[in-house]
Each structure stands twice: as C-alpha cells, then as structure tokens.
Amino acid sequence: MTSILLSSFNPVSAFMTALMVGARHIFYGISMLHKYKSMGMKKYYLIFSTSDETFAVNYTAEVDLDTDRGWFYFWVSFLDQMYWFAGAAIGALAGSLIKTNVKGLDFVMTALFIVIFMNQWVKDKSHKSALIGILGSLIALIIFGPDRFMIPAMIIILSCLLIFRKQIDERSSEDDKERAAGDTGGR
Fold first, then answer.
1. How many CA atoms lie within 13 A of 175 on its CB side?
2. Which of 50, 60, 74, 96 is deepest in the core (most CB within 10 A)?
3. Which of 25, 71, 82, 14 is nearest to 48 (CA)?
4. How many CB atoms lie within 10 A of CB 2?
C-alpha cells in the first residue's frame, strides 16, 4: 500500500490492490457462515468486525457447551477491534516519537496466513476447501504467472467453493456433530 501512496496515482492499480487485499474477507465470510448462522443481531457486527486475527481466533476456537457462542464471538471481535483502534490511535499520535527498525518483518502476514491454514487443516477432517484453495492457486499460477495469478486464483477458488458448497457444508455439519458428541461424551 505504501508504494501505491508514494507513486503517481494509478486508479486501476489502486483498485486492483484494494480488491486483492480485501477479497480475503470473502473467504473468511464463507468459512464463518455456519458459525455465525444463528447469532441474531450480533451476526451483523461479527461480519463487520472480522479481521485476520478475529477470524483466526473465532474459526479455531472450541467454545465450551456452557458458554454462549454468540457472546464469545462478539467479545473476541469487539476486543480485537478495540486493539486495532487503540494501536492505530497510538501510532497516529505518538508514532513519530518511536524510532524502530521494522526491516525483516515483512514475513508476518505470510506467517499469519500459514498458521490460519495449518489450524484449519488440523481441525477439519475434510480438506476439500483447503485443497480447492491450493489447486486453484496452482492452476492460476501456472496459467497467469507469479505477477498476475492472485485475482484469477481467487475467482477460481470462489467459484469452486460456491459450486461445491453443499458438499462442503454437509461435511462441516457432520464434523460439528462429531465434535459435540465427543465433548459431551466425557461428562
């Protein structure tokens, strides 16, 4: 984003970058559909406040049966949003006073996405959605090359997820029932 702001204004490039960066929320939303299904009015805030970190926590969290899942997701989302807000405010007010070298931290987002992927892989018995993501990315990479594969990969993945949604949702429901049976079985 910094390179876009510092370079001459190119609306198409700015739009495409914003689309690629924001498009990951489509996949977060698809993944959270079954979790946020019966959350009532909280569902709208949960959707609005989804960030990379919120998705990572809410997707992988195994909420106790004694805990209200809606309020659990709400508080994770709210606190995460407040941490972002506070960090941005502190950065805006005092950022110029803090001198630090951030060279070498460019791997952080890649590491976060790898951790999210690995958590999903370990947690889910069915790896259909993960395999769709891997294969869709590889196909787009081969066809379009490393500089232009991101948007076609997202289109391929989103199309496949929508086409196979019923089968993926059925498997997800079966996994949830098995997990719930396992949670109550030891009590």
1. 18
2. 50
3. 25
4. 6
Asked if residue 38 lies in contact with residue 180, where contact means CB atoms within 8 angstroms, the answer is no
pTM of the model as a whole: 0.61
Query: Burial code of 37-57, b = ≥16 C-beta within 10 A, e = fewer?
Result: eebeebbeebbebbeebbbbb
How many angstroms separate the CA atoms of 104 and 92, rounded?
A: 22
Length of the chain: 187
* Segment (H or E) for 98: none
Residue whose tokens read 């019966």: 38
Query: Is-contact 74 42, C-beta < 8 A?
Result: yes
With tokens 């498997």, the residue in question is 171
